[in-house]
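step=predict obj=Intradiol ring-cleavage dioxygenases domain-containing protein n=340
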Amino acid sequence: MHTFSLLSLILACRLAAGHPGEDHAAELKARGEFLQNHVTNLDHCAQELEASGVMKRGIQRRLHMVNRLREKRGLEPQRDDKQSRDWGAMEASHASLFKTTASCVLAPEEMVGPYYVAGESVRSNIVETQQGIPMEIDVQFIDATTCRPVEGKYVDVWQANSTGVYGGVINRENGNGPADPNNLKKTFLRGVQKTDNDGVVKFSTLFPGHYAGRTIHIHVMLHPNARPYPNGTIIDTTAAYVGQMYFDQDLIYSVENLHPYAQNPNPLTLNDQDFILRQDLWQGGNPYMQYKMIGNRLEDGILAWLSYGINPAKRSRVTPVATRKGNLPRETTDMQRNEM
């Protein structure tokens, strides 16, 4: 454990550059010890998920999402060559593409970071007026002890916009820092959804931008006991599972060359320079989102997916940087309300 403790302290010092003023040494040590003593991915659940039909439904769901998005953008749907409804034919042409191969177990000790805001709205479309590469995310939660989907639980996601700014917070490391005091009231790229029978939540969002000290990522948190308030928001910090979703470095390079990402003034941290990500990888997790482009251009959009495992016996308290009060975000449309 001495080597691991030293490693945790080194990582904490490096992370301080990304989140100044925070002491991560204890969190990193606790998270590392959790990952050392628990399964860190869902490889052991592969047979159970296939036998129960969860894997098959996941492949079908992602294929349906791609075709829905292609239709929305005026592109031809992707079809099986034999135009067959038989599972074997579909498996041959699509299973290898849409099968979930990436997974990571959410450690309760994962750092929630300085940008978590409690009280976000239950909604699937979190884009509002932000600009960037359209992205649909499909995130699945599996009980790592039983290999069964985690049903009926609320999940928070939050991320930076294309130029590295998180809505809802004022922080000198947050993209434009204190330059926009009205940012405190903004709700873009934040939202909550409830897991379905297969433990899945889906969000319409944008490919995230980067901020100083961290590689590109999306935050995710599952609340085991949350219930929505009458105004459609979730506030629950007593017990949670926290994690982050990452992206292929070549995909990041491609997106970063496009407008408005190219206007991001923050230095880009690479995946292999990000010490939270490296700790997950060192311990056997694979928190990279699998993805497929909707069309031939990134501007047509991306579908990205990932599976997370949780251990119900392990939970943690989280501390938000702020808690929202009031009703639904001002920019939530009637269509988005109907999606809730």
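step=describe
The longest helix spans residues 54-72.
step=end
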